[in-house]
């Protein structure tokens, strides 16, 4: 069906007047009347009847208007979606960014190779993650740094107010199952020799680590901002990790084809501005 017929019909339906619809569409009144007659011919039903000096929609017109409006809204959404940037974001930082305009967020895939494959294939426009790669096709910019912290229930029977290295290794631990280059996050960040830990549970997400830490006697290791986000709701206690760790470093990764793209640049700046307001309390960590 000619989309112009649909738009003309909706204008007449909303205005309940051929004259007002013609003014709205910048068309002549005969052109509007002719369009409505063409539409009536196609569907085989009368859409408007005369009433006094004006017109009134028939039951068929009311039924069509509901469906046509839905179709037009869908088309408009599809057209406007061209200005939306698709972003993969690591779960541990996603909570700080949801709600930004013109960005369609999705959690990063667990596979690092899939993440970069999707960037190459333009299935995603931008990535915000701790992953990295040496590839001249990509721009990789460090945009945010924060410490990893130990979380446990604030009602933990043995950990109250302080956490030493000896205490840390005596407790059981909740492990995040994600691995990068064969190592888990704790192993990758450790800047000193580490001892074997007793693993009581392996969780598939950072959110699960925090949840299970709040309801068991296990210790979890998560990013500071994520821990602070859920501290009150989950009754979490947060402690600096007694093992010397490097910070969690979030990187903005995108293909070089987008370096000068105006919309892409706008979204990148939005993310940077948002993260600049989320700086962790480094003084609290003694850093």
Outline of this structure?
With 287 residues, the chain is α/β, with parallel strands linked by helices. It has helices spanning 3-15, 18-25, 29-43, 59-80, 91-94, 112-120, 165-170, 185-189, 206-215, 224-234, 262-276, and strands at residues 48-51, 54-57, 85-89, 103-107, 126-129, 138-146, 148-153, 172-176, 179-180, 183-184, 198-203, 219-223, 236-240, 248-255.
Overall description:
The chain has 11 helices and 14 strands. The protein has 287 residues and is α/β, with parallel strands linked by helices. The protein has a 5-stranded mixed sheet with strand order 4-3-5-14-6. It has a 5-stranded mixed sheet with strand order 11-8-12-7-13. Helix content is 41%, strand content 24%. The longest helix has 22 residues, at 59-80. The chain has 3 domains: 3-81, Orthogonal Bundle (Arc Repressor Mutant, subunit A); 84-144 and 248-276, 3-Layer(aba) Sandwich (D-Maltodextrin-Binding Protein, domain 2); 148-240, D-Maltodextrin-Binding Protein, domain 2 (3-Layer(aba) Sandwich).
